[in-house]
Description:
Blueprint (H helix, E strand, L loop, with lengths): L2 H26 L1 H6 L7 H6 L1 H21 L6 H20 L9 H25 L4
Helix pairs in contact: 1-4, 1-6, 5-6
Amino acid sequence: MNIKRFIGMVVAGLIFTVVYEMGVHQYLLTSMYEETSHLWRTPEEMEAFCMLGMGSRLILVAVLAFIFTRNFEGKGIGEGVRFGMYLGLYTGVGQAATYVYMPISMELAAAWLATTVLYTVVIGAVFALIYKND
Length: 134
């Protein structure tokens, strides 16, 4: 494994993750979350757990980057997009399936699926661009 590129993947992936999640959850889906506000922590409570959330994102990105490096074939950005698509469908369907046991709208479940797939496709492409063959 190329450690310098792995670290680059983790740093770029973490920055992308934080910016993407902020855009999705604090702006794009805000009105859907307001419809089910009784399910979520208050903004003050969420802020108190900010560092825990950041730590979990760091671990998530590092694990994703590690899995990518273990399966890297050097086939370019398409390899990263495929990696992201497979991962996104797997995790996105799991998130959307919370509709079964949580009183959320079908629109929110579908939005979670779509935004998860988009996130993983982009992060897969980023990983492929950074962890490329020379």
